[in-house]
Amino acid sequence: KDMEENVEITVKVIPILEQLGRDESFVQLMETCFVGNDDKVELLEWLNKAKERSTTTIYGIVEACMVIRAMDTVHPLLRVLEIEVFQSKEKAILFQQLKAEIGNMRDAIKLKQQEQIELERQLQDIVQMKEMELLNERMQQQQYSKNLGSRQSRSSQVQSSVQCRRVHCQCPKQHASGTNGNCQ
Questions:
Q1: Does residue 142 fall inside a structural domain?
Q2: Which among 66, 80, 126, 179 could bridge 9 via Cys, Cβ 3.0 to 4.6 Å?
Q3: CA angle, corner 179, sides to 177 and 183, nearest 5?
Q4: Is 146 a domain residue?
């Protein structure tokens, strides 16, 4: 029977009290009327007054009043309220912990995103440096090929010039190769 009564209190009465509990008069009622007293009449009167004063329909208030009337004392209600308060505090603590963990996760995600952006930037820098190195290497190879080609053409020009000088030289000496036609 106690279990059934607690379930009815939890399902039918507590939501109404939570809804009406936003009003300061409920807090005063709980502090003054129920501390050390077992008077469910005052609670029922307060609920009826709340129902009459309300400009909107309070769904479930009639069922809550029926549950309270069926109780022998308000002690089960107070016990359930204490349990609800304790569980609410536990839920609030858990909520704060979850909120902190979510905040930490968000910070970690932001940090990882920033690290990823930095790594992508570094990768782009490395790719650009490699491209520049390849471009410089190609340019050096082209310049080397160009220089090699111009040396060969100069070398052939020099050789033909030497031969030409040898032919035109009037000195009686034999010209050894490599003297470039310079007579001594």
A1: no
A2: 80
A3: 120
A4: no
How many domains are there within the chain?
Answer: 1
CA distance 84 to 1: 20
Residue 35 three-state SS: coil
pTM of the model: 0.42
- Does 93 map to a domain? no
Residue 8: domain span: 2-88
Note whether 61 and 55 are within 8 A (CB). no
The rounded distance, in Å, linking the Cα atoms of 19 and 175 is 122
pLDDT of 80:
79
What region, left, alpha or beta, does residue 37 occupy, with left being phi > 0 and alpha being psi -120 to 50 degrees? Answer: beta
Mean pLDDT, consecutive 10-residue stretches, the chain (184 aa), reads: 73 76 61 59 78 77 84 78 80 92 96 97 97 94 83 63 54 53 51
Residue 131 forms part of a structural domain: no
Contact (Cβ atoms closer than 8 angstroms) between residue 84 and residue 14: yes
Give the H or E element holding residue 145: helix 75-168
Which of 86, 65, 61, 62 is closest to 74 using CA atoms? 65
